[in-house]
Design brief:
With 162 residues, the chain is an alpha+beta fold. It has helices spanning 12-18, 44-54, 151-161, and strands at 2-5, 8-11, 23-27, 37-38, 60-64, 70-77, 80-95, 98-107, 119-121. The protein is 18% helix and 35% strand. Strand 6 (70-77) and strand 7 (80-95) form a beta hairpin.
Length: 162
C-alpha cells in the first residue's frame, strides 16, 4: 500500500524491494532474532522471497535500518586473548523520566540478540571526580609599627579610601 516515508508518498512494497540495503524485515510475533532479515546482508532472491512471505497473510514488520556502532572488545577464545569487532547495543531502563540502568549486548554479527549469538556484558558509568580547587590566600605583612588586621578589615579600609 501507499505510505509516507521521508516526506514523500511511496508504494511500500516496491520501495522496500528496490532499496533493500536500507531495511529490515521481521515477523511481528517472533523473538530471539528468528526470521529477521537485514536487507544489506540478504541476497536479492531471498529478499524478494521474504517480501512475498510478508505479503502472504502473516504479520511482518519492515523497519528502516539504523547504523549500530561497532567497537573492538577483548575476547578469550581457547585460552587466547583476541580483540573482536562487535556491535554494541545499549538499551536503557527508564522509569518515568529517570534512567535507572542499561542492558548492553555485544555481538560479532549484525544481530545483537542473545539467542542469535550475541551476549550481555556489564555496563559501567565512569564519572571523573570533581577536582577540588586549592584556595591560596596571600597574607600581607603589616608595616612595622602597625597592628595586623583581619583581611576583611583591610578590605573595608581600602574601600573607604576609594
Amino acid at each position: 500500500e501507499k505510505t509516507r516515508f521521508k516526506g514523500r508518498t511511496i508504494d511500500l512494497t516496491e520501495y522496500v524491494s528496490t532499496h533493500k540495503d536500507d531495511f529490515v524485515i521481521k515477523p511481528n510475533d517472533e523473538y530471539g532474532g528468528k526470521g529477521v532479515y537485514l536487507g544489506k546482508e540478504t541476497d536479492s532472491t531471498q529478499w524478494e522471497k521474504v517480501i512475498k512471505d510478508a505479503l502472504s497473510g502473516e504479520l511482518y514488520v519492515v523497519q528502516e535500518l539504523v547504523k549500530i556502532p561497532r567497537q573492538k572488545f577483548p575476547t578469550l577464545t581457547n585460552g587466547k586473548l583476541t580483540w573482536v569487532d562487535m556491535v554494541v547495543d545499549m538499551d536503557p531502563y527508564t522509569f518515568g523520566a529517570v534512567t535507572e540502568g542499561a542492558l548492553t549486548r555485544l555481538s560479532a554479527s549484525s544481530l545483537a540478540n542473545v539467542t542469535a549469538g550475541g551476549g550481555t556484558t556489564p555496563t559501567f558509568v565512569i564519572r571523573e571526580k570533581e577536582k577540588k580547587k586549592k584556595v591560596i590566600s596571600i597574607a600581607r605583612t603589616p608595616k612595622s609599627g602597625t597592628k595586623a588586621r583581619p583581611k576583611s578589615a583591610q578590605r573595608s579600609k581600602l574601600k573607604r579610601k576609594k
